[in-house]
Amino acid sequence: MTVSKDQVDGEPGRDETEEEEADRKWGELIQEIRVAQTGVQILFGFLLTVVFTPRYTQLAQTDKGIYIVTVVLGAAATGALIGPVALHRIVSGRRVKAQAVRWAARLTFAGLVLLLATMTASLLLILRVATHDAYVPWLVAGVVAWYLFSWLVLPLWVRYRYTSD
Known about the structure:
The protein is mainly alpha-helical. The protein is about 75% helix and about 0% strand. The chain contains 4 helices and no strands. Helix 1 (about 20-50) packs parallel to helix 3, helix 2 (about 60-90) packs antiparallel against helix 3 (about 95-130) and helix 3 (about 95-130) packs antiparallel against helix 4. The chain starts with 17 loop residues before the first helix and ends with a helix. The model is unreliable at about 1-10 (pLDDT under 50).
């Protein structure tokens, strides 16, 4: 039996083979992707409809530029978060699950970064159109700070605080 990475150097861990570990990690990753995928697909769907509304033609050029960037970011986020499914389907049965899980995790992280950018740009556009006030960038910065805290800072702190790796 192969010892998992979690058990190296006498560390407590799971008694699973490399294949079992890859299966478990794949299942966990797919659950995470489902949450992010749903959100990005709904957001992207709404973004696609904006250009067909009468209000779109009344937007300032800056707002139209923000909209175009937002749609492209949304498309990229959608692609990155759906990518692991295509990756799995194409390499399934080729005995490369551990490598596929690593690449799928990278795609998922890229998708989350792109989702952060999409949500930020969407919020900026919506608040600019809704209020036209000078405090909009401050509101957006506050929300981005919250995203960064809850999506990156807190997880990294927990990782640092509670693991030895």
